[in-house]
Amino acid sequence: MSTCPVRIRHHTAGASQPKAIRMASPPVLENEDRTEVLDEPLFSTLDIILLSALLLTALWWLMRRNKHEEYTPITKSYSIQPTLLPAVNPSENSFIKKLKTSGRSLVVFYGSQTGTGEEFASRLAKEGIRYRMKGMVADPEECEMEELVHLKTIPNSLAVFCLATYGEGDPTDNAMEFVDWLKSGNADLNGLNYAVFGLGNKTYEHYNEVAIYVDHRLEQLGATRVFELGLGDDDANIEDDFITWKDKFWPVVCDFFGIEGASEDVSIRQYKLTEHVDLPADRIYTGEIARLHSFTNQRAPFDAKNPYLAPVKVNRELHGPTSSRSCMHIEFDIEGSKMRYETGDHLAVYPVNNSELVNKIGEKCGVDLDTVITLTNTDEESTKKHPFPCPTSYRTALTHYLDITSNPRTHILKELAEYCSDPNDKEKLKLMTSTTAEGKAAYQQWVVQENRNIVHILEDIPSLKPALDHLCELLPRLQCRYYSISSSPKLHPTTIHITAVVIEYKTPTGRINKGVTTSWLKEKHPTDPPSYVPIFVRKSQFRLPTRTSIPIIMVGPGTGIAPFRAFIQERDLARKEGKEVGDTVLYFGCRRANEDFLYKDELEEYVKNGTLVLHTAFSREQSQKVYVTHLLENNKDELWRIIGEQKGHIYVCGDAKNMARDVHNILLKVVMEKGKMSELDAADYIKKMDSQKRYSSDVWS
Ligand SMILES: Cc1cc2nc3c(=O)[nH]c(=O)nc-3n(C[C@H](O)[C@H](O)[C@H](O)COP(=O)(O)OP(=O)(O)OC[C@H]3O[C@@H](n4cnc5c(N)ncnc54)[C@H](O)[C@@H]3O)c2cc1C
Ligand SMILES: NC(=O)c1ccc[n+]([C@@H]2O[C@H](COP(=O)([O-])OP(=O)(O)OC[C@H]3O[C@@H](n4cnc5c(N)ncnc54)[C@H](OP(=O)(O)O)[C@@H]3O)[C@@H](O)[C@H]2O)c1
Ligand SMILES: Cc1cc2nc3c(=O)[nH]c(=O)nc-3n(C[C@H](O)[C@H](O)[C@H](O)COP(=O)(O)O)c2cc1C
């Protein structure tokens, strides 16, 4: 039972604006290194059986791989999964052999979840040819990375690493093993020439940690840094960071290897087009992620490669009639799918692009979108044979496989410029791709600030009429989107619920931009026959304490409430089953009580029945903003009682940029003030809470 008086608190005035003085707390999505503070026996019988099974599987795997005898995996994974999946047997992947047989000396490895790192790597490898360094892109997961010690056997060779950071300074899934190898091994990398470019985001505490680590570790192992570490910040302009770095990188590389002058910058197509005339329909991809016919012939297990087509069971508006926005409560039916999920997991959704935008591209390019094509890599050594599943129609490629709504990067504009029939249009595009201050400013203003996607660019550059197959080669892959699951499987084993705010905004050019996934989901309603959505569950480490008696504080303004709805459902069930349940405290914030108070009735019912203590902040109901952070500041005693005295857990979900950072700062203040600690000790205390899984975040920006 709750030991605290049950109440709803509405706070409306008197708080001052919080100041962000530190970096955001890391998004604690998954971390297998963590242990929870418990005073119950360490292992139950079930745990021992499971651990033994895991140990045996791990031993079998290690023996099978027979790769590193002393290798101890420190594997972690987190919430974003790559959608391009390796399809190669690693034992066949000697990158040294490939480099030698194809006369190359440059290899660019990438650590990427959502494709940016991979794209940067491709661009570098492609540019190598200009500097007489024929390049190859490589996925470390598909390579024997121990072979780095032999790269020096190729004259004038260079390894470049484009590496993104996730979670708590973790590598991407495909770079995990490589980073573990660097950490645990002591290979002699003397003679290896290298450079590193990192991809990160400054709103996360562990900014670019992977790249920083790899750059340092390679040097420690004897390798030669040819050019300084580059750091890209996705919160600012990662494209600018990359081209600025790249522009300085090449002259230094040329100097280092004694290469004189660059050849002309000519566009080289990566993929060859084949148009099919009479291909039988059953050989054509229609949006499947990997296996042909996987949408008509659904087979478990379902994952990133093989999503489940889930019928939409419920799609209900959560905002009140006076709200200018929309937030959806969606329930997906997973009955009979064998899909399982746990409270705190994420649901991945594969979206579909708006058909009007797709048609506009077809019109502007003057192409019949129903033409069936295959794009085949001209580089026979590449493991990536096609940029997306082929054969398929242009329509399917633009609808299911390609990202047509984000701001195109400069290399795309550079190649498109060649298709302008008006020299002024060509110059305009070319300027935006130049690395001069003027060029960068023009790109920043016209593409980024004015928020133009490829359709807008085709509309606003009248003489631009690119070859559609070339455009399809250049556009990045459409990525799945993640949603914090807002239901508990204990209550809802056959449905998965999400809480998604619809993205819609006006751009400076007066256009209305709509979020790809949320605007598509908005139209998905329970129908007969059902509307289907391709989904899969991504495991997380955002978990309730295993003992229900441990008190918890949840901070989740806006859609940040999503996982907490599931947490509360589970605690309510436990209470009704007669279990001892510690305090369950929620800090929820929204604009106005009658507009966007998500799940108001449900929450008030939990308050009434004694499951929940609810604190609400309605930010726009008075002249001064009131946020959940202000309430936390006013409730330092409650906070300290739960986290300091009762060793409870605190959870944060929602905005990574401001809110999570502010909550971290308040927590620090509370620990200093109520725990009577210095700032340093309080920071240590919070770090310890973090590693004990007593402070977890599920945040995004
Ligand atoms: C781990 C994780 C959990 C998440 N959980 C949830 C959740 O529970 N609920 C939820 O609603 N979302 C959640 N998200 C966010 C979600 O994944 C999507 O990013 C979101 O729904 C938008 O997707 P979309 O395809 O509709 O929009 P997109 O087409 O991806 O467009 C979004 C982009 O539009 C731009 N944009 C958005 N608003 C504006 C604006 N006002 N002005 C200018 N540009 C703008 C931004 O660049 C933004 O990245 C989560 C994200 C992560 C990583
Ligand atoms: N990348 C994406 O596509 C995407 C998609 C969905 C959400 N998001 C982000 O995720 C966050 C949550 O979105 P949402 O629409 O669910 O919530 P929301 O309605 O924008 O915000 C919920 C409440 O939080 C308040 N708030 C603003 N800044 C805060 C801070 N620093 N600390 C505490 N509270 C604060 C808001 O107040 P005011 O609005 O009155 O200031 C509002 O009352 C937003 O930051 C949004 O930008 C991003
Ligand atoms: C859920 C999530 C967690 C992230 N964590 C970090 C982080 O801890 N440190 C960091 O520097 N960047 C972090 N980032 C930013 C990414 O590294 C950055 O967006 C990068 O460009 C992604 O590259 P990719 O597209 O190749 O995966 C995170 C991004 C997301 C969506």
From TrEMBL:
<dbReference type="InterPro" id="IPR017938">
    <property type="entry name" value="Riboflavin_synthase-like_b-brl"/>
</dbReference>
<dbReference type="InterPro" id="IPR039261">
    <property type="entry name" value="FNR_nucleotide-bd"/>
</dbReference>
<dbReference type="InterPro" id="IPR029039">
    <property type="entry name" value="Flavoprotein-like_sf"/>
</dbReference>
<protein>
    <recommendedName>
        <fullName>NADPH--cytochrome P450 reductase</fullName>
        <ecNumber>1.6.2.4</ecNumber>
    </recommendedName>
</protein>
<dbReference type="Pfam" id="PF00175">
    <property type="entry name" value="NAD_binding_1"/>
</dbReference>
<keyword id="KW-0560">Oxidoreductase</keyword>
<keyword id="KW-0472">Membrane</keyword>
<dbReference type="InterPro" id="IPR008254">
    <property type="entry name" value="Flavodoxin/NO_synth"/>
</dbReference>
<dbReference type="Pfam" id="PF00258">
    <property type="entry name" value="Flavodoxin_1"/>
</dbReference>
<dbReference type="InterPro" id="IPR023208">
    <property type="entry name" value="P450R"/>
</dbReference>
<dbReference type="InterPro" id="IPR017927">
    <property type="entry name" value="FAD-bd_FR_type"/>
</dbReference>
<feature type="binding site">
    <location>
        <position position="700"/>
    </location>
    <ligand>
        <name>FAD</name>
    </ligand>
</feature>
<feature type="binding site">
    <location>
        <position position="662"/>
    </location>
    <ligand>
        <name>NADP(+)</name>
    </ligand>
</feature>
<feature type="domain" description="Flavodoxin-like">
    <location>
        <begin position="106"/>
        <end position="250"/>
    </location>
</feature>
<feature type="binding site">
    <location>
        <begin position="619"/>
        <end position="620"/>
    </location>
    <ligand>
        <name>NADP(+)</name>
    </ligand>
</feature>
<comment type="similarity">
    <text>In the N-terminal section; belongs to the flavodoxin family.</text>
</comment>
<dbReference type="Pfam" id="PF00667">
    <property type="entry name" value="FAD_binding_1"/>
</dbReference>
<feature type="binding site">
    <location>
        <begin position="515"/>
        <end position="518"/>
    </location>
    <ligand>
        <name>FAD</name>
    </ligand>
</feature>
<dbReference type="InterPro" id="IPR001433">
    <property type="entry name" value="OxRdtase_FAD/NAD-bd"/>
</dbReference>
<feature type="binding site">
    <location>
        <begin position="499"/>
        <end position="501"/>
    </location>
    <ligand>
        <name>FAD</name>
    </ligand>
</feature>
<feature type="binding site">
    <location>
        <begin position="112"/>
        <end position="117"/>
    </location>
    <ligand>
        <name>FMN</name>
    </ligand>
</feature>
<feature type="binding site">
    <location>
        <position position="559"/>
    </location>
    <ligand>
        <name>NADP(+)</name>
    </ligand>
</feature>
<dbReference type="InterPro" id="IPR001094">
    <property type="entry name" value="Flavdoxin-like"/>
</dbReference>
<keyword id="KW-0274">FAD</keyword>
<feature type="binding site">
    <location>
        <position position="505"/>
    </location>
    <ligand>
        <name>FAD</name>
    </ligand>
</feature>
<feature type="binding site">
    <location>
        <position position="234"/>
    </location>
    <ligand>
        <name>FMN</name>
    </ligand>
</feature>
<keyword id="KW-0285">Flavoprotein</keyword>
<comment type="similarity">
    <text>Belongs to the NADPH--cytochrome P450 reductase family.</text>
</comment>
<comment type="function">
    <text>This enzyme is required for electron transfer from NADP to cytochrome P450 in microsomes. It can also provide electron transfer to heme oxygenase and cytochrome B5.</text>
</comment>
<feature type="binding site">
    <location>
        <position position="325"/>
    </location>
    <ligand>
        <name>NADP(+)</name>
    </ligand>
</feature>
<dbReference type="InterPro" id="IPR023173">
    <property type="entry name" value="NADPH_Cyt_P450_Rdtase_alpha"/>
</dbReference>
<keyword id="KW-0812">Transmembrane</keyword>
<dbReference type="InterPro" id="IPR003097">
    <property type="entry name" value="CysJ-like_FAD-binding"/>
</dbReference>
<feature type="binding site">
    <location>
        <begin position="164"/>
        <end position="167"/>
    </location>
    <ligand>
        <name>FMN</name>
    </ligand>
</feature>
<feature type="transmembrane region" description="Helical">
    <location>
        <begin position="42"/>
        <end position="62"/>
    </location>
</feature>
<keyword id="KW-1133">Transmembrane helix</keyword>
<dbReference type="InterPro" id="IPR001709">
    <property type="entry name" value="Flavoprot_Pyr_Nucl_cyt_Rdtase"/>
</dbReference>
<feature type="binding site">
    <location>
        <begin position="625"/>
        <end position="629"/>
    </location>
    <ligand>
        <name>NADP(+)</name>
    </ligand>
</feature>
<feature type="binding site">
    <location>
        <begin position="481"/>
        <end position="484"/>
    </location>
    <ligand>
        <name>FAD</name>
    </ligand>
</feature>
<keyword id="KW-0288">FMN</keyword>
<feature type="domain" description="FAD-binding FR-type">
    <location>
        <begin position="305"/>
        <end position="545"/>
    </location>
</feature>
<keyword id="KW-0256">Endoplasmic reticulum</keyword>
